[in-house]
UniProtKB/TrEMBL annotation:
Residues 34-478 form the Major facilitator superfamily (MFS) profile domain. Keywords: Cell membrane, Membrane, Transmembrane, Transmembrane helix, Transport. It is found in: Cell membrane. It is a multi-pass membrane protein. It comes from Nocardioides bigeumensis. This is DHA2 family efflux MFS transporter permease subunit. Coiled coil: none annotated. The chain crosses the membrane at residues 34-58, 70-88, 100-127, 133-152, 159-180, 186-208, 220-240, 252-269, 289-314, 326-343, 355-373, 385-406, 456-474. Pfam families: MFS_1 (PF07690).
Length: 490
């Protein structure tokens, strides 16, 4: 019921309130401090998907990375984050969300500190995995805190801001990575998280209330399902990555793909047999959540893969320095932000479904423009128009996806639902980088990057068009925004 999904669950006295006027007055007085703290943490999580991209050549020279290590420094983070997000969402729903958030924040911050001191590829990839595991606890707990802290129009605004962070953070990460790498060397891209993590932890202890755990709903956690899911996804990405060096039909690739399929099939069987699966069967019946999460996976894969390839293209084909490369991504971040801001205002009037469809069309045009770059490119004439269209398309989509996904979700399921949505975000990122790297082929030479980028961006365009199918399955109206608009009389 929509009335249930708009109950503020942060303080027990509000649980049984039935008077709308009292509820609206309480909402009106609710400060944005909690949202600011959650967004600060989430910005770190999203930035770290791409903040290492521009730093990769410097890291490679310092730690003597092989070409395969490039992808795993990105993939280790998003795979562990995405693979454990569903378990993290379940934990956030069953236990005190503040404690779960602080546990994830601590693990993420310690992983960042360890990554900053890493002296080998294995140490850095392992630390990136620890960051990802911390993010898997932090993100759904943060969304759960936001959903419990706000209701009505405030919640719709908070979700739109959350979507804006998700959309612009990846592009902004490249900019910050370039600035930090140039000013302080590559280790700064990890060290910067430490003081931010400490400051957020102090703020949360002061401003976010302890939420008692409902003992009746506490059940055994599905750790076996989580392990099967993570190992299956890691093996799948390894299989996709292997196509670059071994080919699509090599025994090595086919064996990895077969193992990945067996592990993921084992996860599906496990979920049907265990008493408390990571994703309760009823969750899969929430059409808006499942469809939006599917679109989230595809869009994020396209964007993260595009940024990964573009950062190599700008440095190795155009000859840009890390700082200049970061600045060249600034228009992409600006157009994403512009698109997201426009979408936030249009969302109550247009609806998420139409915004996502429009965004897919615009982003597809941007990918096609980027697929036309040749061996004698100009940033302003060839790259910038593609970035502009891609950003204007992606910005509205992330805002609309966040609202569409959470629209039919009750507060007590918000951690799990955000975990499913952000699983699409992270797994899409990992598979996007792996798939586009495979589509591009040899990206170690200038000629290889030029030819590979053309093929990869054409694949991005085809993938974005295909996402119109799950978009059509979204409901025409957004339950999260419509009642709020009616309830306030405007």
């Amino acid at each position: 019921m929509s009335t249930q999904s708009h109950h503020p669950a942060v303080s027990p006295p509000l649980k049984h309130q039935v008077h709308a006027t009292d509820d609206e007055q309480a909402v009106a007085r609710r400060p944005w401090t909690v949202l600011a703290l959650m967004l600060a943490a989430q910005i770190m999580v999203v930035l770290d998907v791409s903040v290492v991209n521009v730093a990769l050549p410097s890291i490679a020279a310092d730690l003597h990375l092989s070409s395969s290590n490039y992808q795993w420094i990105v993939s280790a983070y998003v795979l562990l984050s995405g693979g454990f997000l569903l378990l993290g969402g379940r934990v956030a729903d069953l236990f005190d969300r503040r404690r779960v958030f602080l546990t994830g924040l601590t693990l993420f911050t310690l992983g960042s500190l360890t990554a900053g001191f890493a002296d080998s590829a294995l140490a850095l990839i392992s630390a990136r995995g620890a960051q990802g595991a911390g993010a898997a606890l932090l993100t759904p707990a943060a969304m759960s805190i936001v959903m419990a802290s706000y209701t009505g129009r405030q919640r719709a605004t908070a979700l739109a801001m959350w979507g804006t962070v998700a959309s612009m953070g990846i592009a902004a990460g490249v900019l910050f990575g370039g600035i930090l790498t140039t000013a302080f060397a590559w280790r700064a891209v990890f060290f910067i998280n430490v003081p931010i993590g400490v400051a957020v932890a102090v703020g949360v202890l002061a401003k976010v209330r302890f939420a008692p755990t409902p003992t009746a709903s506490r059940r055994q956690l599905d750790l076996s399902g989580a392990v099967l899911l993570v190992t299956g996804l890691i093996t799948l990405v390894y299989a996709v990555e292997s196509t670059t060096s071994h080919g699509w039909t090599a025994p090595h690739t086919l064996a990895a793909a077969g193992i990945a399929f067996a592990l993921l099939a084992g996860f599906v069987v496990n979920e049907r047999k265990v008493e408390s699966p990571i994703v309760p069967p009823t969750t899969w019946r929430i059409r808006s959540l499942v469809s939006a999460s599917t679109v989230m996976a595809g869009v994020t894969g396209a964007v993260v893969g595009a940024i990964f390839l573009s950062s190599l293209y700008l440095q190795q084909v155009l000859g840009s320095s890390p700082l200049v490369t970061g600045l060249q991504f600034l228009p992409l971040a600006a157009f994403i932000t512009l698109g997201a801001a426009a979408a936030a205002k249009a969302l109550p009037h247009v609806g998420a479904k139409k915004l996502i469809s429009l965004g897919l069309v615009i982003a597809t045009a941007g990918a096609l423009v980027l697929s036309l770059v040749d061996s004698d490119p100009s940033y302003v004439a060839d790259v910038l128009p593609g970035f502009a269209l891609l950003g204007l398309g992606v910005g509205p989509m992330f805002v609309a996806i966040s609202v569409a996904a959470m629209g039919d979700v009750a507060p007590e399921q918000s951690g799990l639902a955000s975990g499913l949505m952000m699983t699409g975000h992270e797994i899409g990122a990992a598979l996007g980088v792996a798939a586009l790297t495979a589509a591009a082929g040899d990206i170690t030479t200038r000629a290889g990057i030029v030819a590979g980028s053309q093929d990869a961006f054409l694949a991005v365009a085809i993938g974005l068009v295909a996402l119109l199918v799950p978009t059509f399955l979204l409901p025409a109206h957004d339950p999260a925004t419509t009642p709020a608009a009616h309830g306030h009389g405007h």
